[in-house]
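Q: what sequence does this backbone want?
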């Protein structure tokens, strides 16, 4: 009897050890502890043994049952934790692999990167400046005196005193010229802020790329050539560009530049940038000799470039961060 118990126990433990799936484990359990299992049959036989043998065999049976139950619990845990490699049903090599979604650059960043590239090819170095700026750089040094009505066209969020959120990237012109001597050829991409009412082409937070070229005989013709070339690089060889006379206190003469394009199925001119020849007062503010140096500058809306490039009809879509929209670019 005792040999039969040991044999049943060893067989059960071996079978439990081989089980790789929960249903196999269940079969092992019922084959030994189930109603018609091996151990159950031996227990029933116990009553037929002479009393002197019965005690020892009973004890052995109890020990075998405890060992089997312990082995079952340990194996169940191992299968559940995935430590045992499932070799059947769960391994289906025809199931497609797990695809981790990879993000991509925001369309505004893509437009900015392309602008940096286009201007790099035209010989411009990219620099950056602070978003929180002093009124002196945003206004006074650019020949916009505090009491001057042109302040209004660059409506501003003030932080405190004469500290503000820059309303354009033009203050970086001053910072660059304070630090360097001509020749200068830089672009300055960055975020700017204005209390503009949001609509399809205006946002209170938007992006500009400033351009500044200073040298000994820089002319308006250079400005036109650089901008026309940049627009063709950005939007294709047939792109039409229009210069309209305008006014900026920091340029003389000044122009606004539009690009002819299709927006929402309609072809029309969209204003992309302001530009002009650097005003002599600006050179004086940074200690450059206005008799010796001339220069041109421009400030372009990056959000508007993204709208044109990607056919986006409303600027607000760019800043809502709706992945369903952004996924398309
Ligand atoms: C002009 C002469 C220079 O020598 C240098 C720069 C400039 C540009 C000047 N600093 C400026 O900010 N002009 S601007 O007010 O006309 O803005 C330039 C461009 O920014 C616009 O042409 C437009 O493309 C974009 N923009 C302006 N307000 C915007 C906006 N884009 C989105 N939302 C707004 N609220």
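A:
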């Amino acid at each position: 009897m005792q040999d039969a118990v040991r044999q049943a126990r060893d067989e059960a433990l071996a079978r439990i050890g081989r089980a790789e799936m929960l249903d196999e484990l269940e079969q092992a359990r019922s084959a030994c502890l189930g109603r018609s299992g091996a151990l159950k049959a031996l227990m029933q036989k116990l009553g037929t043994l002479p009393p002197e043998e019965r005690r020892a065999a009973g004890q052995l049976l109890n020990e075998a049952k405890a060992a089997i139950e312990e082995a079952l619990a340990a194996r169940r845990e191992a299968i559940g934790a995935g430590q045992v490699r499932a070799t059947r049903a769960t391994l289906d090599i025809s199931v497609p692999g797990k695809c981790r979604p990879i993000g991509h650059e925001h369309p505004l960043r893509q437009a900015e990167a392309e602008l940096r590239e286009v201007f790099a090819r035209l010989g411009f170095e990219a620099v950056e400046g602070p978003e929180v700026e002093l009124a002196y750089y945003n206004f006074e040094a650019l020949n916009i005196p505090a009491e001057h009505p042109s302040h209004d066209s660059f409506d501003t969020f003030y932080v405190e005193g004469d500290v503000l959120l820059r309303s354009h990237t033009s203050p970086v012109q001053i910072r660059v010229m304070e630090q360097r001597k001509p020749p200068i050829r830089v672009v300055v991409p960055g975020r700017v802020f204005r209390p503009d009412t949001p609509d399809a082409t205006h946002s209170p937070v938007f992006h500009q790329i400033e351009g500044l070229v200073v040298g000994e005989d820089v002319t308006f013709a250079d400005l036109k050539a650089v901008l026309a070339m940049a627009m063709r690089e950005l939007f294709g060889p047939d792109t039409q560009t229009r210069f309209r006379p305008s006014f900026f206190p920091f340029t003389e003469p000044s122009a606004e530049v539009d690009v002819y394009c299709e927006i929402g199925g309609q072809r029309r001119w969209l204003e992309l940038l302001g530009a002009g020849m650097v005003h002599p007062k600006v050179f004086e503010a940074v200690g450059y000799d206005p008799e010796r140096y001339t220069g041109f500058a421009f400030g372009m809306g990056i959000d508007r470039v993204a709208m044109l490039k990607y056919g986006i009809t409303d600027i607000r879509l760019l800043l809502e961060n709706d992945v369903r929209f952004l996924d398309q670019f």
